[in-house]
Specification:
The protein is of the alpha+beta class and 148 residues long. 24% of the residues lie in helices and 23% in strands. The strands form two sheets. It has a four-stranded mixed sheet. A three-stranded antiparallel sheet has the order 1-2-7. The protein is globular. It starts with 8 loop residues before the first strand and ends in a 16-residue tail after the last strand.
Length: 148
């Protein structure tokens, strides 16, 4: 019996990004990959501190030491491109956010790989695959209306 595939989501603050929608968007609009600097991104995501025995070591953006499955990470395919979304808040200049590939990034960092291939989504593309947690998919509220 085959299990149905579970949709993949990346959660960041109040936002969720559909990885399945991102992959479909990339398939529909092919693009070249760009090199992602593994040591810089691993440091930015706190992956370099995950195995630090210091209980005060923490990261602000990436996974915690108990949420990253290192065993799984070491089995991931480093030839599969990561996905980076360009996000912009309040008309600020866009900034990159890794939305797919944290386990691959950890493995590449652990194995001292200097770069990984990555697809980069534009701000507009990122908004197409993004939902807001409190509003739910495509703006439908997940909070039940109050009774008058």
């Amino acid at each position: 019996m085959t299990r149905p595939r579970v949709p993949q989501w990346f959660h960041f603050g109040p936002w969720v990004f559909s990885i399945d929608a991102a992959q479909a968007l990339i398939a529909a609009s092919p693009r070249d990959t760009r090199p992602l600097d593994v040591p810089a991104w691993a440091a930015a995501y706190g992956l370099t501190h995950l195995d630090n025995p210091n209980p005060w070591a923490t990261n602000l953006i990436g996974p915690t030491s108990t949420t990253l499955n290192r065993t799984y990470a070491m089995t991931t395919d480093l030839t599969k491109p990561l996905i980076v979304a360009q996000i912009s808040v309040n008309a600020a200049p866009p900034g990159p956010l890794l939305i797919d590939g944290t386990h691959r990034l950890y493995r590449a960092w652990h194995e001292h790989k200097p770069q990984l291939p990555a697809y980069v989504l534009t701000v507009q593309e990122a908004r197409q695959i993004q939902d807001i947690v409190l509003l739910g998919p495509r703006g439908t509220s997940t909070i039940p209306p109050s009774n008058p």
